Amino acid sequence: MEGTSRLVSLFEDEDRYVIPTYQRGYSWEDEHVKELLDDLEEIHDDAGDNGENQHFFGTVLVTEHNSPNVMKIIDGQQRLTTVVLLLICARNYFASKKEKSEKAKKYFQRLEEYINRGKHKTPVLVLSRTNQKLFKEISCSNNEEQSRTEDHSKSNDSNELLTNAHREIQVWVDKKGADGGDEAVDAVYNYVQTLLNKFVIYKYRYKKEADAYTVFNLVNNRGTGLNESDLIKNSLFGEMADQGTRESELDEYDSMWDKIRHKVTGKKEAGYQLDRFFYHYLSAFHSNKFPKEKGVCLKQKKLHELFKALTGIKSITRVNTGMVIKPMPLITDMKNWSETLEKLRNPTKNEFGNNNIIHYLEKIRDVKAVFVYPAILAGYKEYWETKRIQFEALVMLCFKYHVRVKIIGTSMSVSSYQEIMCGITNKINNGISVETIISDLISKEEEYPNDDRVKENLMELRVSNAKHAKALLEEAEYGYSDERTLASASVEHIMPRNISKWDDIDPEKLSVAAYHSKYFSMLGNQTLLSKKKNIAFSNNKFEFKVKEYAKEEKYGITRSIPKLAGQVDGKLVWNATAIKKRQERLADKILKTIDLSQIRDNVV
User: Which residue in 326, 325, 327, 305 sits closest to 316, CA to CA?
Assistant: First the structure.
């Protein structure tokens, strides 16, 4: 079939639909789902029988599967998946009402036939591996079976989007049928009818998958927008399909791809995206194969074009074509490095043993110093097996340099910072030692701000991000000591968050609120405590907390607080003078510990 048709036609014929294993996962954000629901409401409110208010819902490109009455969705999966989600949510609503409403029972059965076909309950839509298990769980009409399934909702970033869309649509449906009676049941069903009969699509059916993908790529290049990782996957798997790779092998490599996505974007990996991993992978291991337009970093835009060149699918001017890697070994290699990345982002004693390495890898992750990962990946390959002290020095260099130029805020641009990290990565790949890398770095003031400039920034530093504050305070506490504890510390504000608990006001001609706002986030007003003690201290007054600070065993920067407190009428108080004094003490400690020359001098 080819031509314009109502959306309901996809559910009334005998065809079922599958998303090819190598297509991207569900990618609609909240705003896309809301836009669909808003369009549905608008069309529904203007509904009439003359058909003039139809809403064009886009194109659907399909090609024949090797099973009868099964179509592969080449383009349109996001729209179709969201439509089926809405049918599922409406069906679930009717299921909750069918014991008391004959109409709900009838509507439930009708939608169930759309969602799961025939006596075997075969799903009308099967998603790609990325979302397959979760969507099957969502589609299931048996709540008991749902409750027994594994939680797939946050196993990757795409499943989180699918979960959010399902939740948002279910809330919307339940709100439309909030009254619960037959009128509310009819209201929900009428919205479903508007969607199925007033939304129209243009369906193209191709015999050859290559022809469908030609149109697909043309449409997406004109602005509907795939992520770089989606385009990379389409290129690599399309090349394998063109070379006659068996379905079983494609499925095997799609499983690898799914593992890459899980390792990189699973719930433990917050703040690190799949596109970024592919860029960092190329930067760490293949940067020398590509020309650079400016500086030493690879160009991030059109990343998929670099992968095409790397695999020989498409040539790029001046690229080193003698180093082509075929898609299968490339995917295998990326899967292996995604596993290494997970170890680096969630380090354990079993893997690394060394407290310093674990500590600084955790800090790099916590402060989201993402630009250092190409250097760390390259360093792991170069140093880990034979030169572990070099790897330890590199990890410390990456974190301490990030603290110096980004957290303390010496106004270095992101592009300049990234260029420096790319340069370090290239030097590692060229066999240059960490000692030499550090010496080169600290010899250039534009790349390595001098101590006076850093100290000036530290003296005025306010830190509202708890992970940044913790990272700085731990630098002040441990310095270069090997005795650091991996116990979980938390950040304690000495001046209470609750102003009413702070009776040591030194107004400086400011209002109490302005005074509190000025000093509360100063680094000098923050310290380390165990989480248990921090909760116990809560918003207690300083006269209570100062006695406990003096008895603190783990953290010397906390134990020394009473010595820095001011005195008024023989009573210890925590005021602006004390905070400024402590800020300077911390600044001096931090300045010493982020001095990279100490790392260089201690590498043997």
Answer: 305
| pLDDT-based confidence at residue 487 (cuts at 50, 70, 90) | low
Q: Are 355 and 486 in contact (CB under 8 A)?
A: yes
Angstrom distance (rounded) from CA 108 to CA 94: 5
Phi and psi torsions of 201, nearest 5°:
-125, 160
> How large a percentage of the chain has pLDDT more than 90?
50
Q: How many CB atoms lie within 10 A of CB 151?
A: 11
Rg from Cα positions in the chain? 30
Q: Quick one: pLDDT band at residue 203, thresholds 50, 70, 90?
A: confident
Q: Is 2 helix (H, G, I), strand (E, B) or coil?
A: coil
594 Cα distance to chain centroid: 28
Residues 204 and 61 sit within 8 Å (Cβ to Cβ): yes
| Sequence-separated (6 or more) residues with CB below 8 Å from residue 235 | 304, 307, 308, 311, 313
Q: What is the mean pLDDT of the chain?
A: 85
Residue 285 contacts residue 377 (beta carbons within 8 Å): yes
**pLDDT (0 to 100) of residue 5:** 85
Q: Distances in Å between the alpha carbon of 191 and those of 111, 148, 184? A: 13, 32, 11
Helix (H) or strand (E) holding 133: helix 129-139
Query: How many Å apart are CA 304 and CA 228, to the nearest integer?
Result: 6
Rounded Cα gap, residues 572 and 542, in angstroms = 8
Q: Quick check: 226 and 124 in contact, CB under 8 A?
A: no
pLDDT at 585: 95
At residue 604 the predicted structure's pLDDT band, cuts being 50, 70 and 90, is low
Order of strands, sheet of 55-64, starting from the edge strand that comes earlier in the sequence: 3-6, 199-206, 55-64, 70-75, 16-18, 125-126
Question: What is the secondary structure of 59-99 as a DSSP string?
Answer: EEEEEE-SSTTEEEEEE-HHHHHHHHHHHHHHHHHHHHHTT
Scanning the structure block, which residue is given the tokens 């760490």?
A: 284
- Give 119-166 pLDDT, tens digit per residue: 778 899 999 888 888 999 998 855 434 443 456 666 788 899 999 999
C-alpha neighbours within 13 Å on the C-beta side of residue 327: 25
For residue 566, give the H/E element and its range. Answer: strand 566-568
